[in-house]
Amino acid sequence: MTTTRPIAGGAALRVARLDLTLLWRNRTALFTAAGLPVLFAALLFPAHGKKAGGMDAALLQGTGHLGFFLLFAVFMNLVNVFTARREDLTLKRLRGTALADADIIGGGVLAAAAMYAVQVLALLVLLGAALGGRFPADPLLLAAGLAGGAAVFALLAFAVSGLTPNAELAQLTVLPIMFACMAGAGVMFPLDGLPAALEEACRWLPLSPVVEITRTAYFGRDFHDHAVHAPVGFVGGWAACLPSFAVLAVWLGLGRAMAGRWFRWEPRRA
């Protein structure tokens, strides 16, 4: 994955607008990126009033969904987009225009990030208005964690796209990362009941640090500590999330390396 010159803001925005237009016309991709989050959000209502980890189960799952929706809006969406456009030669044709590589890639990421931001805001409103939630204790920490997660999953999408033979298989190649994050990142249930070694391994999944940061920022409690969740202030919240940010930094480095090695601009050949 190469970049020949810096992103030109206007060009990247035009590519992003085109990507959103094409997504709206592709009902299957639109359902994956936007419809599945709506279904998961609807499943929060039956959990409201129940307890999980000493907290309202709907709020615990809902704050996990703030990170989990990255898989739909960013990761799966970008794998589908870049695999399909590589195979139908759209990426190759775009590289023959005045657009820089960074414009083409940046436009796709901007479109995915914009859709994800809308989902985050809608979910925060749902948590507060319908599920008895609160305004995030530290909105800046929340934004930092979600932005870091978006960067990680965008890079992973570029890498997985390069390994995906065609658009039809894109729905399958994303599943290992999706299921691992769904089961092991603490989105659906607390991890403190797992054996110590397994719990520590789950901390290194790419979604786990995002979920920890998101919940710490939302509740104002230390969710890097999976058992106690002690209250933290502004400085304490950032300090508690330093290990989570360190894991994100590791994944940023790995994602950049894998994307640089595996991302393809032209169709794969047998």
UniProtKB/TrEMBL annotation:
The chain crosses the membrane at residues 28-45, 65-83, 104-128, 140-160, 172-191, 232-254. One of its GO terms (cellular component) is membrane. The keyword S-adenosyl-L-methionine does not apply. Keywords: Membrane, Transmembrane, Transmembrane helix. It is a multi-pass membrane protein. Residues 20-219 form the ABC-2 type transporter transmembrane domain. One of its GO terms (molecular function) is ABC-type transporter activity. InterPro entries: ABC-2_transporter, ABC2_TM. Signal peptide: none annotated. It is found in: Membrane. Its main location: membrane. PANTHER family: DOXORUBICIN RESISTANCE ABC TRANSPORTER PERMEASE PROTEIN DRRC-RELATED, TRANSPORT PERMEASE PROTEIN. This is ABC transporter permease.
